[in-house]
Specification:
about 775 residues, single chain, transmembrane, about 10% strand, five-stranded parallel sheet
């Protein structure tokens, strides 16, 4: 009896073949062809599970109870018996077997030998049949299937392997890093080794014979119709006509859904590793279904790099396999690199993961950190649940990141001479927006001048504290350029100002453009603490993600005239991926014309022709281009780094200053209020960081030079007096007086604060 063994490889073609064969099972039997049911009604998955190596535990064996060698042996013996019974009762001339996983999962010679040994008692000869198509199509469809089974790695990982000398070996290296006991399965997480068709054919030929292996054209980009379905089945059944079932193939999941699912998979696998317990697959799949979203399937942009890499080899392969037409490997090259799709609608995986964990008990081995009584009164039930769950996840905040000792006093930086700029160049330019910030302007300008910023373009709107007059005088002295923005239009005064700034010669002629606010201080933590020192470490950078370090009010209640950078030296932990605001960043942009627009956190509207000239780096100087070149304003666990530079963000300053900020409102999100929740999100005081204080001597010198102008001094003092008076006035207002009392009572740990803020994200 001849055995025709269909091993995949293309999923869509395999699905068509299996449905056609199952639908025509009786018709085939009448013609002496058996498509058995004992290995599986449709896909002969039991055959695959029976022959994989005992230690190669896949998700199918694990979820169906055949993970142990003993249970697998029982499966193999039972399959042999039942298959023998089917053969005995039908006495066919041809045995048809089809399982996608035979080609896409079996990669060891021992597994192919075991497969041959299982079938040899029934076989007079073997024909191995595989359907293939353009590698880009196969990769896309396989990746989609993997993600919905739990894959965490981005498709970028697989595309990066294209340059490897041995594709098969490079892919299989990703298979050997998995831990099945923790829900990490090689065939789900690993790269598709089988796209090297020549290597795959050689291995199967070494076991089943040189002439036993045939490759045929799969579906690829062709339209599925009755003729195509018949042709896909023809290699298995010769000239027998089948009754067409017209089975509709399932639609590919949307690209946005895949992005969402992959982000969730990443978090769940990390949590699993920390818990040392796997989650039930049924619940995992239900969670992925919950985040599904309609939309277009992943397009082919950027994927054809793999078609191009294999094209010459595949044409030669088609010449060697006469059953495979060369047009199988036709493709249209895409000029754009692959980018993961936008998950849409501001999707963040953490709220879904936390809700998922809510139904699962924490590991018994995890010692719980109790919530303080004061925090328990403040935290909602959801926040308290978050507190329990965060402890067992990689999202738990801590300060063990990087190489900088932030609490150790160090010598003051030395004063650097003012840079001499070529004519018609404005150098490094900060563009900022202000409203009622008079007491803080001089320190902010002095600090940034001392580290190597050359010019300032400041927009103001609706100021009543003397900010406008102070900036006008600084413009008169040649320190800044000041623009009134009182008649702003659109959604926010800030974005309107940034749009207008692009028309300014100061911005057009800038070397670097930096958009930060007056409560944000660039803290260079390498060399002599200047931008030159940072650029020496990152000579190829075109964009720098300056990640926030959120500094709390440090128990400072009242306004005073000390420097902000001196008063407030306690901040958020370095590792704090949640809530999402903690790892926000602002961007220092080299003026190479790569983007059309400046926005609050980053430039936007990438000019495609400039893509290959762009290099984004993080605060440790590491390349993070792939992650943020198109979008995004927050660091991830992969891209976080503070070693060379961070952006100290003093969003609150003192308690009295916060009252004035609340009364003033926001520059960007003008429709969002500033209140107790904002305070809790921003008041991080757990860890000391005094690294910026190495700049105090230079700051004092620059500040002294600015305030030496009598008019500047008078306007600065008037601004301080205005704020002191405003703070006293607000404290006599019931609403603000109550808020002032509330914020003074709040004492939360980093874990409690993260849990509270995360609950706000989940409820919004």
């Amino acid at each position: 009896m001849k055995v025709n063994l269909h091993i995949g490889l293309e999923r869509s073609a395999t699905t068509v073949v299996q449905r056609q064969l199952a639908h025509n099972r009786a018709r085939l039997s009448d013609s002496g062809i058996l498509y058995p049911e004992s290995p599986g009604a449709l896909n002969h998955i039991r055959l695959f599970m029976a022959v994989s190596d005992p230690d190669a535990v896949c998700n199918l064996r694990a979820n169906r109870g055949f993970a142990s060698p003993a249970r697998q042996r029982q499966l193999r013996e039972a399959l042999q018996d039942k298959l023998a019974q089917e053969l005995s009762s039908t006495k066919p001339d041809v045995l048809l077997l089809s399982a996608l996983q035979l080609g896409t999962c079996l990669h060891r010679e021992s597994e192919l030998v075991r497969l041959k040994d299982l079938l040899s008692p029934f076989a007079s000869g073997f024909k191995i049949i595989a359907h293939v198509s353009d590698p880009a199509h196969m990769l896309r469809n396989h990746y989609a299937e993997q993600v919905l089974e739990g894959r965490a790695a981005s498709l970028a990982r697989d595309l990066d392997l294209v340059g490897e000398k041995d594709w098969r070996a490079a892919c299989l290296a990703t298979w050997h890093q998995m831990t099945p006991a923790l829900g990490q399965y090689s065939e789900v997480q690993g790269a598709p080794f089988w796209l090297d068709f020549s290597a795959l054919a050689a291995q199967w030929q070494s076991v089943f014979g040189q002439d036993a292996v045939e490759f045929h054209r799969g579906l690829g980009a062709r339209t599925l119709n009755a003729e195509v379905r018949q042709n896909l089945c023809r290699p298995l059944i010769s000239n027998l006509d089948l009754i067409d079932t017209d089975p509709a193939l399932p639609d590919l999941p949307s690209a946005a859904w895949l992005s969402r699912a992959r982000q969730i998979n990443t978090q769940l696998l990390q949590i699993t590793a920390q818990r040392k317990e796997a989650f039930p697959r049924k619940d995992w799949r239900a969670l992925l279904s919950k985040v599904s979203v309609a939309g277009d399937a992943m397009d082919m942009h950027g994927l054809t790099v793999i078609s191009k890499a294999f094209h010459s080899a595949n044409l030669a392969f088609a010449q060697a396999h006469k059953t495979l037409p060369v047009e199988t490997f036709d493709y249209t090259e895409s000029p754009r690199p692959w980018q993961e799709a936008d998950p849409t609608q501001g999707f963040r995986p953490t709220p879904y993961v936390m809700a998922f964990l809510d139904g699962i008990s924490p590991p018994k081995s995890l010692k719980q950190i109790e919530i303080s009584e004061q925090a328990r009164v403040l935290m909602s039930p959801l926040a308290q649940k978050n507190h329990a769950h965060l402890q067992g996840t990689p999202l738990k905040p801590h300060n063990k990141l990087g190489t900088v000792d932030e609490t150790k006093a160090a010598p003051q930086y030395t004063v650097m001479p003012t840079r001499k700029l070529p004519s018609e160049q404005s150098g490094r330019v900060i563009v900022g927006c202000m409203k009622n910030e008079a007491p803080y302007i001089l320190e902010w300008i002095a600090h940034h001048r001392s580290i190597g910023v050359d010019n300032f373009l400041i927009y103001t709107n609706d100021c009543t504290d003397g900010t406008d007059q102070l900036l006008d005088q600084l413009q008169h002295l040649g320190i800044v350029q000041h623009r009134r923005n009182d008649n702003w239009k659109g959604n926010s005064p800030q974005q309107y100002a940034l749009n207008q700034s692009l028309k300014e010669p100061l911005i057009k002629n800038a070397e670097w453009i930096i958009h930060i606010d007056v409560d944000e201080f660039i803290n260079v933590r390498c060399g002599n603490g200047t931008l030159d020192d940072f650029f020496d470490q990152t000579p190829d950078a075109t964009h720098v993600a300056m990640t926030w370090r959120l500094f709390g009010h440090n128990n400072v209640k009242s306004l005073n005239n000390e420097f902000v950078t001196q008063q407030f030296d306690h901040c958020a932990p370095k590792f704090c991926p949640k809530p999402h605001t903690v790892w926000g960043f602002k961007t220092m942009t080299k003026n190479i014309g790569a983007y059309e627009k400046i926005s609050c956190h980053r430039p936007n509207k990438l000019i495609e022709e400039k893509r290959n000239q762009i290099k984004w780096v993080n605060g440790s100087g590491r390349d993070m281009t792939r992650e943020v070149i198109n979008k995004g304003w927050r660091n991830s666990r992969k891209s976080i780094g503070y070693d060379l530079l961070q952006l100290n963000h003093y969003a609150l300053r003192s308690a009295e200053s916060f009252l004035i900020k609340r009364q003033r409102g926001r520059a960007l999100h003008v429709d969002r209020s500033i209140g107790l929740n904002y305070w809790i999100r921003m008041d991080w005081n757990d860890h000391q960081d005094i690294t910026i204080q190495r700049n105090q001597a230079r700051l004092a010198a620059e500040f002294g030079a600015l305030i030496a102008d009598p008019t500047v001094q008078d306007l600065h003092q008037a601004g301080c007096q205005w704020h002191a008076k405003k703070a006293a006035e607000l404290q006599n207002t019931p609403e603000f007086s109550e808020l002032y009392k509330q914020i003074q009572k709040i004492k939360l740990t980093s874990l409690e604060r993260a849990s509270y803020a995360l609950a706000l994200d989940m409820e919004s």
